[in-house]
Amino acid sequence: MTAQREPHGGQPGSRVATAPDAEQSSRLTVTIDGTTLRGVAVDLRSWSIDAEDAAAAIRGRTGTCTVACPHPGSLFDAVGVVEPSLNVSLRRVLAAVARRRGYRADVVDELRSVSAELATLSPPDCDRSEQRRQVAAAGTDEAKLAERVATIRGELQARRDAGVDVSATEKRLSDAVAALTDARTERLSAEQALDRAREDSRPPRDRRDRRLRLQDRKRNLERAIRRELADAVYNEFTAAVWRVPGESDPGRSVVEYEGDGVTAALAVLRMLRTATPAVLAVDRFDGPERAAHELGVPILRV
To answer: How far apart are the C-alpha atoms of 287 and 294, rounded to whole Å?
Structure first.
């Protein structure tokens, strides 16, 4: 399977602004405690602003630091804050990049069909714990009464052997036998109710099994789509890896990539060329301006 570009390229209605080219980044405006800074890169290290604060400002949070820039897209959470410990889910990220490029996987229609059918299959209620509890309780009552009947019968026989009056004991035995009969009836009724519930649950269970199979198919399709989309832009990613600082070997596919998350994130940023700034917290470039120039992305250095 090979992902194909949709007509006109890019996703319809995309509102993510992009820089003009890979070597030119947009300018940004940063305000800190009333001081306004402008440029393709702003160094925030002397202002005691950390990566979290800078990212929050990019997302629009008002506070000590504010940043006038386009609202970050969905990929900002994955690669927008470049820290030494960054871990990039490369296949997911590249699949998202491919979607922005307008690529469409071959099985996307099947995924839509599976998702639509899943929406019609609500999870069935096959919980029969209450019926099973009733059967167990009825069985316990029956066993206790059967033991009581046996005990009274023993007492009755002993009194007869002793030649004493047994009328009261016979009455107790009669009452116990009647109670045992009722308990046995209750137990049989509970068992029959459980059997009926099990019989009634067969169609819902079929629906549940169908739902589980569809959920598994949906997950497999989603993985296949991510793999296909990531492969569609992997050559571009490889070229970007060779252009950014870092020691990584991209190989020929996502599974062959050997490198750190920082290098992968920098390469993806170079591919994206967003007008939204990235937060840089690593020493990979000769200054923030150089980073902005090489990535084509405005930079907030922290």
So the answer is: 11
Contacts of range 55-58, beta carbons closer than 8 Å, 24 or more positions apart: 55/80, 55/81, 55/279, 57/30, 58/276, 58/277, 58/279, 58/300
Q: Could you tell me which of 137, 147, 294, 118 has the C-alpha nearest to residue 222?
A: 118
Half-sphere exposure (Cβ direction) of 178: Cα atoms closer than 13 Å? 6
Asked whether 254 and 94 are in contact (CB, 8 A), the reply is yes
Predicted confidence (pLDDT) per residue in 81-133, tens digit: 999 999 999 999 999 999 998 998 889 899 999 998 888 886 656 678 888 88
Q: State how far the Cα of 77 lies from the Cα of 158, in Å rounded to an integer.
A: 85
Handedness of CA 283, 74, 20, 228 (dihedral sign): positive
3-state DSSP assignment of residue 43: strand
- Would you place residue 21 in the very low, low, confident or very high pLDDT band (cuts 50, 70, 90)? very low
Record the tokens describing residue 97, joined without a space: 């990049």
pTM equals 0.68
∠ at Cα 196 (194, 199), nearest 5°? 110
Q: Are 79 and 260 in contact (CB under 8 A)?
A: no
CA 49 to chain centroid: 31
CA angle 162, 163, 165 (to 5 degrees): 110
Tens of pLDDT, residue by residue over 242-252, are 999 998 999 99
Tokens 């116990």 belong to which residue? Answer: 176
Residue type, 115: S
- Residue among 70, 95, 61, 94 nearest 16 (CA): 70
